[in-house]
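Researcher: Next sequence.
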Amino acid sequence: MSNTSELIQGIRKAKAELLSNLLPQATITGADAAALVENRIVSKGERADGGKFSPYSTKGVAAFRYFGRSRNAAGERAVRDAAKKKQEVSYQDFRRMNGLGTSIKNFQFTGEMWSGFGVTDIRVISPGIAEVTIGGKNARTDFLLKAHAEREGASMTENSKSELALITDALNERLLRILNRNLP
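Model: Next structure:
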């Protein structure tokens, strides 16, 4: 009889701990989701479906249009030298002038967009169930993510199937630890 009552008491404690940890667990899960999206795009230049984003533009514009937009003095010098020679500079060229790669499109120039990316909302939609939204945490990042998604025809905030599996496994592991802590 005491085993049954211990089990019932353990289940009640586990349920209470699970419910009290709903928002912290949702926050961790959302942060994981955002980090995985950012890592995939920055390191591989891949959409959630595994396809590649379009390449950086090779269409030239007057070099002076890039004045004051470089990441460093060397990039600014290169842009100004091109402008003096009345050369056109593509965005791909501009990235190279600033010491950045062009083999994959990773939407990273200053790091501003990705530093403003993460959990934007957590809502409890029913007891024990939370909905987490990731995206731009500020107006500038939100604008950039939407503009890039529209231009690319692909979501910038969607997780891939393999990322969702990793997120699910990690969450299940954390929930199992709570259960193991409370059940006899």
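Model: The mean pLDDT is 94. The chain has seven helices and four strands.
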